[in-house]
Amino acid sequence: MDKAIADYRAGDLNHARREFQELHANHPQDVRAAVMLGYTDIKLQRDAEAYEAVAALEKGNEGNLDLEYVLGYAMIRTGKTDEGVQRMEKVARARAGADAWMVAGSMRFERHQFHEAQADAEEAIKINPNYPGAQTLKGKCLYAAGNRYAAVEAFQAALRREPTDFDANLYLGVLYSERGDHATAKPLLELALALRPGWPLAQLELAKVYRSEGNNTGAIQLLESLTKSDPEWTEPHIILSTIYSIVNRPEDSKRERAIVQQLEDKQRAQ
Question: Looking at the predicted structure, is the pLDDT value of residue 62 above 90?
Answer without folding.
Answer: no
